[in-house]
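Budget justification note: compute hours in this period were largely spent on complex prediction jobs such as the one shown. Inputs:
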Amino acid sequence: MNFLKPYIKKYAKPFSVGVLFLTFEAICDLMQPTIMSKIIDIGVANQDLNYVFKMGGLMLLITAFGALSASVRNVVASNVSQNFGMGLRSDLFRKIQSLSARNLDKFDSASLITRLTNDVTQVQVFTNGLMRIFVKAPLLCLGGLIMATRLNSQLAVVLAIVVPIVALLIVINMRVGFPFFKKVQKALDRVNGVMREYLSGVRVVKAFNRFDYEVNKFNGANEEFQSTSIAATRVMAVFSPAIMLTVNIGIVVVLWVGGVRVSEGHMQVGHIIAFTNYMTQILFSLMLISMVFNMFVRARASAARIGEVFAEENQMTWSDQLPATTTRGRIDFEQVCFSYDGEPVLKNITLTCLPGETVGIIGSTGSGKSSMVSLLPRFYDVNSGSIQVDGVNIQHLDPKKLREKIAIVPQKTTLFTGSILENIKWGNENATQAEIERAAQMAQAHDFIANTPDGYHTRLGQGGVNLSGGQKQRVSIARALVRNPEILILDDSTSAVDVATEARIKEALKTYARGLTCLLIAQRITSVIDADKIVVLDQGEIVGTGTHEELMKTCDVYQQIFQSQVGKEVQADV
Amino acid sequence: MSKSKDQAAPPLVSSGPGPRAGFGGQGRGGPVVKPKNFKATLQRLWQYFGKERKILTLILLFIVLDSVLMLSAPYLLGKSIDAMSLTRGTVDFGLLELTVFALLVAYLTDAVLTFLQGWLMAGVSQRIVKNLRRALFAKLQKLPVAFFDTRTHGELMSRLSNDIDNVSNTISQSTTQLMSGVIVILGTLVMMIVLSPILTLASLVTIPLVFLLTRTIARKTSVLFKNQQIQLGKLNGHIEETITGLHVVKAFNHEEKVIEQFDLVNSKLSEIGVKAQIWSGFLMPIMNVINNIGFTVVAVVGAMLAIKSLVTIGVIASFLSYSRQFVRPLNDLANIFNVLQSGVAGAERVFEILDEQEEPTDPPGAIELTQPKGHVVFEDVRFGYRPDVSIFENVSFESEQGSSTALVGPTGAGKTTIVNLLTRFYDVTGGTIYLDGRDIRDYTRDSLRRSFGIVLQDTYLFSGTIKENIKYGNPEATDAEVEAAAAMANADVFIKRLPKQYDTLLSENGSNLSQGQRQLLAIARVILAKPALLILDEATSSIDTRTELHIQEALLQIMKGRTSFIIAHRLNTIRDADTIMVVDQGQIVEQGSHDDLIELQGRYHSMFVNQFKNLEGANE
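Corresponding output:
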């Protein structure tokens, strides 16, 4: 939990101030029963109105002071916890943005999101709780014990029995409850799982008419969830009355013993009232402490998960000096080997792309095509060998500077909330409207954009949900083109676009791509057939490089791919 | 929902169910989503109580009993104090014994009753919620595909889990709290008046103050919490987007801009959060002051009355307990009302789904399609997903029994719509589709859909074993049949390599298999279902071409003798089809065999040339 240190340092002072006022608050709370008992014992018993007024005033004064302390504590606690939460969230977000893909692969994105949202909130709530009740509860408990004992040490014997019993009950409660609630959570997950599965597979369910099966499956999960949660709630239903009963019996005993003591002349009646007051207060703080403990366990788990992200270090290094380059868009892979986690993904890749060249990369799923291009913008660094862009080893380049030269159209289209215009502008913030439209035209996106009522200002929902797959891909291509890069990487980025549109995009690129180095990953041979060079990847190795004609003669794998795509008729001609 | 315990302990009394494990970090005074029609929804929810109403009545009885007991506790306490004279040495042990014994009985009974309440209530609320969940899921079976197409899974899941949770909490907590709260307040008031009308008046002085305060603060905080929720939603949206799209953020060097946006929302959130927290945090300390003012007033007035011997000390002691007891449930009631409101709002959203228009039931006299032959005719079919946007205008074509029809055309041309219409996921808005000479609307939906086998681009596998997944379309199939189907689909090769073979457990949506393997399983599933007609909707588009070769063999196998519809944008998959239809903007623009269409030199030809000219040229 080292990551918490700077925050502790930063907020130690206001935190202490908060706790100080919390202590005042607790002391005021503790004094109240004593004064109340005095009002009854002395004021009312002696029918001394003046005393009642005096002590009543004192009590109000103390209460007011307590309220004032509470308010100060409230303001301090709110500020500290919210600012702490904000700072932690912001730092975590920055940290995530600064990490390399290799770091981030350790977490899936759903888990990163949970860490940023739930886990931070959990820790923040705990901090706030610390300054609100968590510190107060032990204070109240301890103070209550001291005051009660001071008030009457004989009656305190009752406390010595009641408090351990209650503490024991609370511990048992937590011990018993925890596994139960885990079970309930599991059952609930199953109910939700069946539901989610049904929602995604609704067409299949309908097509195969399996309603009864789905309903039965769901009812089973539902039934199980119901019985586990009933069992859990019922077990827990024992503890609360049991704890209350213990304390109440304690009160009865105090009354009886107190009566005896009063008759012996050792005690005043008001003490009994005050004493029972302290008892409920102690009970109360014990319950709070049990909650504190629960919260602590959860907050600690969250903090640990946040800590895992902070513990990641981006291993990428670079020198700040930018060596002068002469060429624009030359790429050299030299004996590049790469693996994500031990299993080699790329083996001895050597390849040169000259400026202005279009290089097609083809191969079956899992052959390493996407991995190969993700090395170029330093999403990942090579394990051995080197990659040079314009003659400079990219290991020495600041990834930011490097990425300025490169534009990527990723396989999985990712668009962001905002207008289409804003999305395309991601590629180049200073692009003019004319440049944006030109890029959209080349990506064959202009027409459909212009046909929407709001044109380029059409707002996209999260992830661009209101566009079709093909439309999203075209916006994504426009975003890359507007960047005006030295190197363009198209990672199977026309898979959802129909053949005719794809052909037009390729045509436009041909004109545009003059002088631009273009890496083109594709499934279809037709997409790469007129590339200057085609690289055939198979199981992480280059098994062929050359033009289509050359590869048809020399490369077995290429021929297989070709045959699989052309169909029987042509196959027969071969 | 959670009530704050950040206050001085109640003196001398056990409050009904005892302090709940409510910890007021966020929940307290949280935003309340108001139901649109509170009363009607509540009435409707009441219908779901059904048999539980009897048990609920029993619980109510327990609560009344328990509340009466708890009301008598301060009285008994006061009596026992009265048994001890303030002047030392004289204690009426007879009275003390009696009151102490009575108290003991009261406390014991309270514990038992509280336990019983909790025990019974757990059953009641869980069973009601279970029935609600069951009704909801059963409803989902009857809703048309259009319902699912127009809503995100997140939205539906939130109704199915969060909203129902809300309902459950409302039933289990609010009902008991509400009932006991009301009874305690009324009972306390009665007891106080019986004890001393003058003191009652004195203690009620602070009540308007309490009301005023809670209302002002609640109004202030509810706006703030609502805003906080909105900001939180924005922040979460931003986080989700930028984290899932992290590669793109990095590729375009947008880290700083994304952080900037993040900080903007983040600081706004914390700004509102501070305000909301401060405002809601003020309530308790101020309430404490007011309570103590009440206490002092009662003590002063009490002392004055005692001096005039109008009340005993014991009465004052019990009275002070009562006045505390009176204020606490008042505070709680405001909270309970919030929980109740959000619970009812949740129920309302659940009911909204239950009220959705179902897929119309089959008309009386609908025919069971027993042995479909597979002769399909589209006659002047018109259709639009929305009434104002037409996708199809007068589409007509015929597919002979056992023939294969391929649909090609640009994205959005309406290829998939034809499939949606054939299977009656959607119904035509005009014209007729005939199967074996009858309007498909004459058949029962079940039997119609059973006659189609559909392979979608996005294969959907369920969590379960491979065998279960293959048997999904034909649960009665034997193991031998399953294996035969898998063999036909070329799936047996990879299945046999798995350690548990056909009993391999698939994780959700089969993510432990490759795309190609999943597709092969989906094909095996269709083979086993033995449909008369076959629909392949981009069945191989997300698979690389070498794997596709495998799958294509399997597909050709099952297409034999079956009327098939093939949607594809890779033209090589469809060259062998008997009829190829080029669809564009809801119209069939060309129709014929591959050779016919090539000869025609039209759209298909140019598409084909685009895709193949280089290949064939290179080949010559």
